[in-house]
Amino acid sequence: MAAAAAAAAAVGGPQPPQAEMPAPGLALDKAATAAHLKAALSRPDNRAGAEELQALLERVLSAERPLAAAADGEEAAAAGGGGGPGAAEEEALEWCKCLLAGGGGYDEFCAAVRAYDPAALCGLVWTANFVAYRCRTCGISPCMSLCAECFHQGDHTGHDFNMFRSQAGGACDCGDSNVMRESGFCKRHQIKSSSNIPCVPKDLLMMSEFVLPRFIFCLIQYLREGYNEPAADVPSEKDLNKVLQLLEPQISFLEDLTKMGGAMRSVLTQVLTNQQSYKDLTSGLGENAYARKSHEKYLIALKSSGLTYPEDKLVYGIQEPSAGTSTLAVQGFAGATGTLGQLDSSDEEDQDGSQGLGKRKRVKLSSNTKDQSIMDVLKHKSFLEELLFWTVKYEFPQKMVTFLLNMLPDQEYKVAFTKTFVQHYAFIMKTLKKSHESDTMSNRIVHISVQLFSNEELARQVTEECQLLDIMVTVLLYMMESCLIKSELQDEENSLHVVVNCGEALLKNNTYWPLVSDFINILSHQSVAKRFLEDHGLLVTWMNFVSFFQGMNLNKRELNEHVEFESQTYYAAFAAELEACAQPMWGLLSHCKVRETQEYTRNVVRYCLEALQDWFDAINFVDEPAPNQVTFHLPLHRYYAMFLSKAVKCQELDLDSVLPDQEMLMKLMIHPLQIQASLAEIHSNMWVRNGLQIKGQAMTYVQSHFCNSMIDPDIYLLQVCASRLDPDYFISSVFERFKVVDLLTMASQHQNTVLDAEHERSMLEGALTFLVILLSLRLHLGMSDDEILRAEMVAQLCMNDRTHSSLLDLIPENPNPKSGIIPGSYSFESVLSAVADFKAPVFEPGGSMQQGMYTPKAEVWDHEFDPVMVILRTVYRRDVQSAMDRYTAFLKQSGKFPGNPWPPYKKRTPLHPSYKGLMRLLHCKTLHIVLFTLLYKILMDHQNLSEHVLCMVLYLIELGLENSAEEESDEEASVGGPERCHDSWFPGSNLVSNMRHFINYVRVRVPETAPEVKRDSPASTSSDSLGSLQNSGTAQVFSLVAERRKKFQEIINRSSSEANQVVRPKTSNKWSAPGSAPQLTTAILEIKESILSLLIKLHHKLSGKQNSYYPPWLDDIEILIQPEIPKYSHGDGITAVERILLKAALQSRMNKRIIEEICRKVTPPVPPKKITAAEKKTLDKEERRQKARERQQKLLAEFASRQKSFMETAMDVDSPESDIPMEITTAEPQVSEAVYDCVICGQSGPSSEDRPTGLVVLLQASSVLGQCRDNIEPKKLPITEEEQIYPWDTCAAVHDVRLSLLQRYFKDSSCLLAVSIGWEGGVYVQTCGHTLHIDCHKSYMESLRNDQVLQGFSVDKGEFTCPLCRQFANSVLPCYPGSNVENNLWQRPSNKSIQDLIKEVEELQGRPGAFPVSISSETNLSKEMESVMKDIKNTTQKKYRDYSKTPGSPDNDFLFMYSVARTNLELELIHRGGNLCSGGASTAGKRSCLNQLFHVLALHMRLYSIDSEYNPWRKLTQLLEEMNSQLGNEEQQSEVPILYHDVTSLLLIQILMMPQPLRKDHFTCIVKVLFTLLYTQGLVALSVKCSEEDRSAWKHTGALKKNTCDAEKSYEVLLSFVIRELSKGKLYHEEGTQECATISPVAWSPESTEKYLQDFCLPFLRITSLLQHHLFGEDLPSCQEEEEFSVLSSCLGLLPTFYQTEHPFISASCLDWPVPAFDIISQWCFEINSFTERHAEQGKALLIQESRWKLPHLLQLPENYNTIFQYYHRKTCSVCTKVPKDPAVCLVCGTFVCLKGLCCKQQSYCECVLHSQNCGAGTGIFLLINASVIIIIRGHRFCLWGSVYLDAHGEEDRDLRRGKPLYICKERYKVLEQQWISHTFDHINKRWGPHYNGL
To answer: Which of 194, 767, 1485, 1821 holds its CA 20 to 30 A away from the CA of 691?
Structure first.
């Protein structure tokens, strides 16, 4: 305590009296003091005790030692040498703990308090990245979340839940019935336990009530002390963090207190909210100078935050600021937007300057908009309030946030804290805006606010008591005001409108989202939303806020050069509109569902219209939009539209009562229409100079997350306008906006002043498509929610098959969470099962894995495919094509239509009565004139018209017929005739009657060069004819624009005062063509057609036959009665025309008659245009071209399919049948040299010394063999601490143990010949079977080296892909010159005796270099062989090559080489399933390179000749005389006894030591000799395994038979002999009792003995047969498993040919002893005995060889992924003992590793890479726990393999984003295992990348 005293003295505070200073170090004293004080306080009169305690606390908890000193350690002297920084703080904490416990132990105290915890709520607080759960079935609030423990203890089976990684942090809601249903509570929180918890005894927490206020005050003083206002520009984040680090223990202490449960929390709540104690302690009025200073710092901090202290007198609570009612100056807002404040670019808060904004200046609104009391006043009355203030000041340190949230289960605290939070809301926003770490800070803010505002009761209370809504809206408004700029829309100079600048950090970084998300959160509560919708002032403010986004991010079309800098701000703009405008709108809409809420809608609509009117005024908008501008952001329009839609759909409001006047409607429609036209322009590439981002905007506008807040409301608003405005005006506006008016002329040539010719066609298509969408879409016009969902789903499925999750993502859900159509909800699933079939995930042979997909049912294609909806919802144009292709395929497949169909016409749901006016568009003359003109132009083959145009024209006609007015009476129509027709075009407005109206002459304006001008001359000569024409008034010019002007005039003239200023002479210039162009003249065309006649002629034209149309009702009158005929529902243009004519005939008898008349007149197929010869030629040419094109397509398709099938066969690892024929392994009768094709130069020829050919091979190190175990069940992946996997029983471990055991007792060089290595890190060689010249390969590698393209492989390491089949490879294996497969000369069996052969073998082995090629002469071939040998060695790591005790000894290389052969044989055996029963030239046959590999190995083996004394061959075939010589010198390590040798290794050594090519009889001889050894080993092992009684029994029976004739071939005799010989040594003696227990007590019957011996010998026979197959090309016979032994032994020539198979087969009959059996056996046993003299235990262990390995497997995975995830994602790493960020687990051995973890890095290798080298010799298979995917590491490359866990819909969930339950997919796991075993990762997986050792 001296430290504190000294510090106090230093500061000049009152020095505590020394007398009562307890000794600092003694905890005992502390405890005594605490106990004494507690006793004093417990007395009724406790004043003295209280004072004493206060004095002690004053001293202990003095914050007067400057923090800086502790931080820097410089002023340690001032601190009185108090043990360095932090010592005093620790001391203080110790005191506190002691005092709280009142003298007892602190831990006991904690436990005591916990006992009184009424834990009804969980309230566990977590931070970012924590794994939590959300259950939509149980949640009331959409933000509900549960910790894993509560989730797993509750019952959520069958619920719609998911796991998620928390982004901002959160808290567990278990037990809170405001947020979730009680049925979902877990077992711990189900009981409302408050009833049965006893009362807290008073004295337990008494000390806490005294101590804690001082403690918290001390903390606040530290915070005040540590905070220094950041200098003007440099933020002092470092300092803040330093202070926080020092305070860590204090805050942690508080946090621990909160975890003690409810009793302690309520004490803390009392302390934190008590205003009196706060006033007493912090007023700064005391005599303590330090406290005064601290208070001043607090005031400075307040001031610098731009906040005023309500009264600057230092007295508290004298006057309360009047609880201001919502004092938002309504007039003030209007004024603010009207008069823009002065332009001001020096904004004090703008640290980043305006450089980002270029020339555009920021605008500041005059500040009468802000409610001063909300924005600037802050006043603290309790510890809680000041704590929160500092929490904000310090930018929400995580510890503080956790402490404040941990307190929330206390109800009283929750309310107080929420109010405090709201009080600081404006301050939080200001801090957030300035913050440099706004992301982290946003997360922390939301972490808090989501806990407070998700609770409806709380939100309502705060709304009522603290004006929450006012505060939020004002704060949002204020926030956006800081980044406004002048709008350039429409009238750049005089515009008074301001918009947000999307380039500002505030929008670009989404800094506003915490505030907006809080706002959306509280609007989801009905009670709060109602307050909002009733408060007119708030609505005005909100519309004002929304108008800041109206027209933001304006695009101006670049007309000259490409824009230099493509700004990417558009995404910020879309996000802002969606989050800040649309989502609050959806929130409000969700509360306007019933009639009673009509008033709310009226309010919103009213203020929305006012805001729109203000906007039109501000941008000076009259009637024409400014050209070449578009903004996609019209939130005001969309608010208006969506509230209208809701009003009609749910509230039964009369639409007209909420619509404005005609003039306003005309204005409203302009901007949405402008957007639709601009979409067409963007797709026509007219905006290409604006860069890619404009396409991005067009796509985002219709994209699934935005469409229902953007394009849908726009189209709906246009539909509303169209239903109320004059149809002619509307239609002409559309064509004018789309700039295609000039195109709509009968003349064959025209001039378009506003559009280039190349864009005309696509713009016309755009205009017609838009009209079709406008007239057919019913999303807001009467469809029910389920119908909408169904239509959306069908549209998405028609484009492509979809996975469940992509469907959820693509279907625009109502963004408001409470709307009921939630993804995954009942309706979604039921609609999905109604329209789609599930396709389970399948595998393709190439190895690419499919997900589970949904595909449309046939009847959906048949009846529900809706091209209009598809066009509306496609982001990419290609999706429309894809939908049509799929539709075509369906029709072909189901036989409904063979050709290329047109989009089908789909019946619509009926219109809601309010929108009936929309159909007038279809019945207006303007549209009919347009349709007529287009039909005529198409018929006349004018340019720029496409099939698409015709399709849309017919669609519109059909829509008109479907939606015609009531049947018109035929008579009346015929009477009116010509008199009524004052207009040359059409008599009325009904399409049905206008269809049959004949139009005779049309006057058009054409360029003088047009053909029509000449043709007109004869008519003009006879003036009367022309005169009569004019008199009858039939030929009239029709100008769409003029019409539109006229209508507009009429509307405007109603308010005539404005008329004069409105009419702008804009039309004139449109019609005066620019001077350069030819003058326009007027021509009159003779037409004489009606729509009906044009349709019939079209039919002829489309079908290419004259008179092709025959009215169907003439044959079958029924047709007119039942109009729905399936034959017409699918088809092409011809079908469409027939369908329309049928409908027209149905609608009126007149039409029917006229159609019949037209058909009677024989009409020439092409209208009046005479076809000249030249034109005919061009037509023929066209046709020929078309045919040629089709042929070419066909050829290409065929070629492609061939290529595909070739690629499949070449790439497919498992189906070599159809492979390129290869002559490497096929035996041929005559002696011929093998011929190889080089795949690079294409020449074929033999491989020669000078120009060797090689096989393309991939060498890889493999440890697959080492993973074999001896039990069939694969090991399970450990998922609890108890389960562990130990690698003792793997093949690799067993072999390692054996080798090291041998090396302990025997001579090293001999040991290295007795075993094989390569179980781990063995080199596996595989080939694709293609050959190339080695010199060609070298030049190929050169070219790859110079190729700069990024390949997936490293050329420097010798990697390449096969030039023919692209399979990955890294070396070339030279083919040995000479005959194909060994020719007959070698094959012919010789009749030499076995003794002669043995001699020959020995002689041949003794001759070094007996090769046709002498090694000394360095030929190309031998060089290549050496280099490939180097490659093979370098493939694996040194530790897998060097096993000898003397490094680098030649024995090592020798061992390595024959082990390579062994590895490849063993692996091939595994690929065949572990046995040879299937026989045949296996799948590996064609691709095998063992023959070539053997030559290379043999060549190198012969460089090392074995010393002939040591050659095991002699021990096998000769009796040695000097048997006792070895016993003499015990010092020298002896040779390995022959019975300890591994027979398969001996075989390979013998064969590779022979000169190649090998003779067949030599091979058989070697096998026979080795079989005798093997069989003896089997007998020895058997004798060791069985019990003492068995042994003596055998010894006896065998001895009886010893003298029979074939004693050498009877296992009983041999066994008894072996036992007798070995009994001489000590082998059996050690046997004590404990051994007997381990051996199975099975009695050995003759059958079981025979089986044991066969099983013992089989592995050797299998390898030998494989070897024979590769060396001599003999096929392997297939057989049953039980006869495998006999078949293989006869195939190897071990069985005498005359052997009969009647009686049971006996393995001993294969024996053929080269020397008397008993002699040689006793010689072998002697070696063993001499060894066991000394080492009986080891001697025995070495004899029992486990030869029956099962196939290797990956670990077995659990069914449900969650079991893996829950265990591993929190597991600590065994190396660094931290919980890894990316945990992974090895699927081969179960090791847990840190992916990319720097913590476990060793010499620049990260842990996964390191493990892949140790466990798999460079191949690693890891399951990434947090992502559920599997990653493969192969050498220096890695790839993501995919996932073996799929959800219920057969989909992967990479990174666990969706968090749905995942289940193992066994097929996928099998494929993974297969690829691992067959070493085909490199071939099958395509996406490899280098990992740079960083995984």
So the answer is: 767
